[in-house]
Amino acid sequence: xxxxxxxxxxxxxxxxxxxxxxxxxxxxxxxxxxxxxxxxxxxxxxxxxxxxxxxxxxxxxxxxxxxxxxxxxxxxxxxxxxxxxxxxxxxxxxxxxxxxxxxxxxxxxxxxxxxxxxxxxxxxxxxxxxxxxxxxxxxxxxxxxxxxxxxxxxxxxxxxxxxxxxxxxxxxxxxxxxxxxxxxxxxxxxxxxxxxxxxxxxxxxxxxxxxxxxxxxxxxxxxxxxxxxxxxxxxxxxxxxxxxxxxxxxxxxxxxxxxxxxxxxxxxxxxxxxxxxxxxxx
Amino acid sequence: xxxxxxxxxxxxxxxxxxxxxxxxxxxxxxxxxxxxxxxxxxxxxxxxxxxxxxxxxxxxxxxxxxxxxxxxxxxxxxxxxxxxxxxxxxxxxxxxxxxxxxxxxxxxxxxxxxxxxxxxxxxxxxxxxxxxxxxxxxxxxxxxxxxxxxxxxxxxxxxxxxxxxxxxxxxxxxxxxxxxxxxxxxxxxxxxxxxxxxxxxxxxxxxxxxxxxxxxxxxxxxxxxxxxxxxxxxxxxxxxxxxxxxxxxxxxxxxxxxxxxxxxxxxxxxxxxxxxxxxxxxxxxxxxxxxxxxxxxxxxxxxxxxxxxxxxxxxxxxxxxxxxxxxxxxxxxxxxxxxxxxxx
Amino acid sequence: xxxxxxxxxxxxxxxxxxxxxxxxxxxxxxxxxxxxxxxxxxxxxxxxxxxxxxxxxxxxxxxxxxxxxxxxxxxxxxxxxxxxxxxxxxxxxxxxxxxxxxxxxxxxxxxxxxxxxxxxxxxxxxxxxxxxxxxxxxxxxxxxxxxxxxxxxxxxxxxxxxxxxxxxxxxxxxxxxxxxxxxxxxxxxxxxxxxxxxxxxxxxxxxxxxxxxxxxxxxxxxxxxxxxxxxxxxxxxxxxxxxxxxxxxxxxxxxxxxxxxxxxxxxxxxxxxxxxxxxxxxxxxxxxxxxxxxxxxxxxxxxxxxxxxxxxxxxxxxxxxxxxxxxxxxxxxxxxxxxxxxxxxxxxxxxxx
Lengths: 282, 344, 353
Prior knowledge:
The complex is a heterotrimer.
Chain A: H1 19-41, H2 75-111, H3 113-128, H4 131-142, H5 146-173, H6 176-183, H7 188-224, H8 236-242, H9 252-280
Helix pairs in contact in A: 1-2, 1-9, 2-3, 2-5, 2-7, 2-9, 3-5, 4-5, 5-7, 6-7, 7-8, 7-9, 8-9
Chain B: E1 19-30, E2 39-51, E3 56-60, H1 67-74, E4 82-87, E5 90-91, H2 97-103, E6 107-110, H3 124-134, H4 140-153, H5 158-161, H6 171-183, E7 189-193, H7 201-218, E8 221-226, H8 229-235, E9 238-243, E10 246-252, H9 253-258, H10 263-271, H11 311-315, E11 321-324, E12 327-329
Parallel strand pairs in B: 3-8, 3-9, 6-7, 7-8
Antiparallel strand pairs in B: 1-2, 1-4, 4-5, 9-10, 10-12, 11-12
Helix pairs in contact in B: 3-4, 3-6, 4-6, 6-7
Chain C: H1 2-8, E1 36-48, E2 53-65, E3 69-73, H2 80-88, E4 96-104, E5 107-108, H3 114-120, E6 125-128, H4 132-135, H5 142-153, H6 158-171, H7 177-180, H8 190-202, E7 208-212, H9 220-237, E8 240-245, H10 248-254, E9 257-262, E10 265-271, H11 272-277, H12 282-289, E11 339-340, E12 346-347
Parallel strand pairs in C: 3-8, 3-9, 6-7, 7-8
Antiparallel strand pairs in C: 1-2, 1-4, 4-5, 9-10, 10-12, 11-12
Helix pairs in contact in C: 5-6, 5-8, 6-8, 8-9
């Protein structure tokens, strides 16, 4: 006798799928808006406008929701203005890496030969140094300000992007449509611009998010060491540094900028990973 | 092996052929498994053939025989080591990349995998328009008109398919787009490198019919390369059978099938599964493994799998001889063309 | 038995009236009916995707006895590979809903857990794939890989396993088997690799072999050799073989019975002799006609099946082949019922040829 087979098939929920993208993306959007518009909207005092009378106020004090630092500056204000700097540095060094590094990688990967070898060896040299040390050396030579910090961190982002762009280009070079376009009579330049670059950019973009996180972190580390954005400019790193000695009695000075840094870096990482998974599974 | 002009009774004077290939040799470096570097493989060892205007030459051979390498060498996508490729009177091997650009208008290629031969991020109408833009043909309106024409020619509709991307197309449709693109600049010779091999059977028939129709309407010539003998025979005026970088036999399609002269041709024909008959046993004699092009057998390359191989075959490489008008074979002991029975 | 089955199949679009067909009658040389090794009844597979349910297989029914070969022929999207994987229990549990029945020697396979199924997989029922390069581990020597298959199903010493592997390599006619044992897959040609796959499949003496496009990636001469090898091995081991392919020529030469699939359904099923003598389905006829055979006159247009292979997530109502059928009429918007002739052949068409 054939017994009836009952199928106990269950379908997995689908609405959860996009959460991994929208949650970190939402957090980042909020962060950017807060940093650039927050001080104006909330009428916060300037990052260096504090007086010693209000030094080391704890969280949730009147007029200073996140408290104040050792010389009375509002911590929320310092965090938001510092965020502006971090975002600018992060984006700036990422963009330089993307454009310069991406171009070098594509050209080297497509041409091959001596050009490729020279470019890659040169960039490998920079990549071999720990990024923080490299940035520290450059910043020391050039002097510490925001532009120089961006420049210094670029010594890391340019080789990193170049590597990735080159690998993708090598794969693309063998793809039928690149060969086919050449055989249609296109010049090398046309092939690169019209076909190779548009197909390299997507993979660079997801990597870009992760790079911003790394750049922000390096900036914070540099500033922490006193080698980046000089005090009294509000950087997350320098604020953290200034709060070290007050960790026991006024922990907010360290914690507030740390939480901001952590949120930014973690969100960028999550978003970058989520996008990469999404692209790879297509 | 070279076909001496004297032995080819129907040879036309140079310049009347659309394509003349002479003693083509293509090599590339290979790393031996034992780690010895610098070993060279001759994927194509001295190939010669002609294609007249409006003619289709089919080239059939198994994996590793070098037919795809030959196609690329003709296109100069991979530069041959030696030999001549004379297209419309010009030797392509002597032209610089820049000069080749102009020639490429008349010489096009269709690849096996349609999806990787087009940029996945482009839309169909841009894909087809691209060759027109590259060669500066016409203004945007004229180009759009031409694209519409071309899509129509291959059986697609600009309003339906024009805005789609390759991933929204089927294999057959994508191959049609590749064909339309290749036709944009009115080529005279199309190289089809396994152009239908990766398509479904029912779609294969559609594309083959399309190729035939285009040939009639546009007066195209084809160099049609495939491993399926029936497909090649169906489309071609003449067929060449290739083995380990050389031609074993070349002749009119029907004749090759009815009276094959080379034992390898016979083996290929016998191995094809058919819907009516019974399996024949010739393929058993072929032995298990084809020799690799890295170390080909001395003398006749086919001798290690040939049921008739004798001493002479190991010592002397057979040259292409024309035993009947237009029907040549490179074998010391070809099938006796007088007594071989017509195939049923 | 058949009443229970047909009353249950309310949502399958091809109602099945399985008449118990005695396939042994006109086949085996011994004359005595051989045992039915594999019996598939009304197999249905639905894939639950993000936005839709794709019915990949709808109502597949066949049975194979020892020493017989059934061919499942179809193009891409016909559901033939999905059928093979469903039988082997290899479909992803999260997205594939499998209904119907697959019985091996009377035991229902679809209800087994993965662990229980593993007892059968590789031992009693084996699957040979299309592309051996993808199913062989490139970093392991072939001898070791085959031995691995042996070890996973029986307790056997390494020395005995080695001997058995060499025996198997010889069985699939690989020359210098002792030396080949130590080679890696990339050192072998396509045909040799396929032989290794077959050797691995045969290692535990299976009763049923499912070959999914075993020769599609091979040259025509190698294909002929491999198919002959399979035929001989089948005779020696008295296996049942399910041959999955798109090649009608192979079906004609190497099968006893053929089932033609289109869009997940069986559209025609008959003994090979009868099928090729009298084709009933327009699709089967069209498929045969569109293949250039050596007898076809050159350059005469092939009769072509217009349109393209079906999109399983958006099938038209009624017969799935109707948009492309030369003979389609109004009635074809109603799903044709799978009919059975007195010989046991089956077809689903309102207007058979």
